[in-house]
Amino acid sequence: MKAVLVRSFGGPEVLRLEETPRPEPGPGQVLLRVFAAGVNPVETYIRSGSYQHRPHLPYTPGTDAAGQVEAVGSGIADLSPGDRVFTSRTLTGSYAEYTLAQRDCVHLLPKRLSYAQGAAVGVPYAAAYRAIFQRGRARPGETVLVHGASGGVGVPALQLARSGGLCAIGSAGSERGLALVREQGALAVDHREPAHLRRVQEITHGRGPDIILEMLANVNLSSDLDAVAAGGRIVVVGSRGRIEIDPRAVMSRDAAIYGMSLWNATPADLASAYESIIDGLRDGVLSPVVGRELPLSEAALAHKAVMEPGSYAKIVLLP
Q1: Does domain 124-263 have CATH number 3.40.50.720?
Q2: How far apart are CA 95 and CA 299, in angstroms?
Q3: 279 vs 140, 273, 285, CA distance in Å?
Q4: Which of 231, 264, 293, 303 is within CB 3.0–4.6 Å of 12 for a Cys-Cys bond?
Q5: Residue 121 · residue 155 · CB < 8 Å
Q6: Distance between CA atoms of 142 and 177, rounded to whole angstroms?
Q7: Considering the domain 2-121+288-318 in this protein, what is its CATH number?
């Protein structure tokens, strides 16, 4: 089969499409024929060698995939070859024609969704759910501000916030991105404008958002502390460097700053998240948005694109 392999850590150019043996499922494992694989920013950090978790070389990147069950290992009776599924984690990497996953990481794909949409579920929706509800402890009626709301995690965050009874505000930096935020039923602010947080204050009648989802904490965290409501929570979903903050800004609002990483989620956390996510996908409340589809051979281009400012919705690879 064809698969993308990383034989040394480095830039996007280390992603090479090669021929490799097809894996076979062991007990409790599922072999998927991959029709679409999701691309996430975390995969660029892992590929560079700068992330806290470094896989053994060589490896195939990716955790999110959608496709059909090809074969199942012993002990699995509730899935059959041909079933439409998506994964929330793989054992052998998703940038490939076939991938292995544990049974509890394979979920039936609702018929209303395409395979490309299925590949856009795993990391983005789980990260958004964990940030809003498990770390941010959101309550119905509260207001959430999602920075970078037109991106891969931002769009799911807006959908999940609205489905959970929250007032959603999303920032974006392009007309196309702002339109996408509005399409999700959220209020949009243009973060290219220096006074965009003033607009957030106007929307919240001077109170500020109860929760802020921060995708670029090294740029925005200090200003977030001046904008968040009293007793508010800032959840750091992404950061690409260091920042200096004034602790008095936290103290004066009784605010809290939470970090968020899917690596730290317990099996119970993930099970709870995916139960809610799958219900929303089935009911049509949640609907993944795919912004760009690229062939598997262009994985390097996908890794460049997913890190560019103003990234739009989800990027998927098609084997």
Answers
A1: yes
A2: 8
A3: 18, 10, 8
A4: 303
A5: no
A6: 24
A7: 3.90.180.10
